[in-house]
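Worked example 3 (structure in, sequence out).
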């Protein structure tokens, strides 16, 4: 039985469809099951060999297989799952301490129930919403994740500082808008976040710059606190105002110029701009006589079974209500 299973595993795979947009080049889809609310995709690895994580020797000796289930980014707003057949191998190096190891999956970490792509999507949505709001929005897209899970994903984020960084970007970010702010420091080479400092008064930035004396270029906003901190710690550092804040300031100045030079109201008539309001042209609109003639209304009052006219009163009179009593008192007072 084992030999037969091993032979089946080493059969050459000939792909019939390209699923490279879903997976990496080393995995393929061999089955899928779809229902009204979910989509299950079953995948396998094309290669049957893996390097030992300790000694680095390639091994093709299969030890066992097991299945891992991941929630992936939704397809057509359906909750999507990946079922991966993962291989375990025996290390063929007798001197290696690692006897059995598992193959690495490029789209998910060990002991992870969601793919890296889905975690990225969750964090991207939750950046603009609260955790509870992001959970509800993602549920509409086909992702089941709780607000506590989103918070745990945030808690796992680590900022890896680089003491040899030479070009950085500095900007203030709102942890809680209007109340709590922080200073974000980015590496300008690949624009990833390397530090998040408390406050935006420039004091934490000074302490950070003291341990990063190799910084030669800083792109920052127009805040005076950041400029003073950089001039004090790194006086020879080149400071550049980033394009976003330059454009923002330019638009602000242009808006003020337009307010001073342009009138408060402009009128456009026949393709021409004027400061004076155009004269109103009164045009009589006649009714459609043919349409009115085609309409027939029965205005006769309704009659009950005895031949008496039915009178409807759409107003309810509660003579004992507070409103009627107040009106009655007002009438009596005015009559006196």
């Amino acid at each position: 039985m084992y030999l037969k299973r091993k032979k089946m595993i080493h059969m050459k795979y000939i792909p019939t469809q390209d699923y490279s947009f879903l997976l990496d080049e080393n995995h393929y889809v061999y089955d899928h099951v779809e229902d009204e609310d979910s989509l299950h995709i079953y995948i396998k690895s094309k290669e049957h060999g893996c390097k030992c994580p300790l000694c680095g020797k390639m091994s093709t000796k299969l030890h066992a297989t097991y299945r891992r289930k991941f929630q992936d980014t939704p397809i057509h707003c359906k909750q999507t799952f990946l079922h991966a057949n993962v291989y375990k191998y025996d290390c063929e190096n007798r001197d290696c301490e690692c006897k059995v190891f598992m193959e690495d999956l490029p789209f998910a970490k060990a002991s992870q129930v969601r793919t890296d792509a889905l975690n990225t999507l969750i964090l991207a949505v939750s950046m603009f919403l609260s955790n509870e709001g992001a959970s509800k929005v993602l549920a509409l897209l086909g992702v089941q994740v709780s607000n506590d899970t989103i918070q745990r994903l945030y808690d796992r984020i680590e900022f890896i500082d680089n003491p040899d960084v030479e070009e950085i970007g500095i900007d203030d970010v709102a942890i809680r808008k209007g109340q709590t702010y922080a200073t974000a420091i980015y590496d300008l080479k690949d624009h990833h976040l390397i530090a998040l400092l408390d406050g935006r008064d420039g004091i934490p930035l000074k302490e950070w710059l003291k341990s990063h004396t190799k910084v030669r270029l800083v792109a920052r906003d127009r805040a005076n606190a950041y400029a003073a901190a950089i001039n004090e710690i790194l006086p020879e550092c080149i400071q550049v105002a980033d394009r976003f804040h330059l454009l923002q300031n330019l638009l602000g100045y242009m808006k003020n110029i337009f307010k001073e030079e342009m009138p408060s109201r402009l009128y456009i008539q026949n393709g021409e701009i004027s400061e004076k309001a155009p004269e109103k042209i009164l045009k009589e609109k006649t009714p459609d006589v043919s349409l009115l003639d085609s309409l027939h209304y029965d205005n006769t009052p309704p009659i009950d079974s005895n031949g008496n006219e039915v009178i409807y009163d759409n107003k309810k009179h509660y003579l004992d209500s507070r409103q009627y009593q107040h009106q009655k008192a007002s009438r009596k007072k005015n009559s006196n």
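Notes: The CA atoms of residues 211 and 222 lie 23 Å apart. The longest strand covers residues 62-75.
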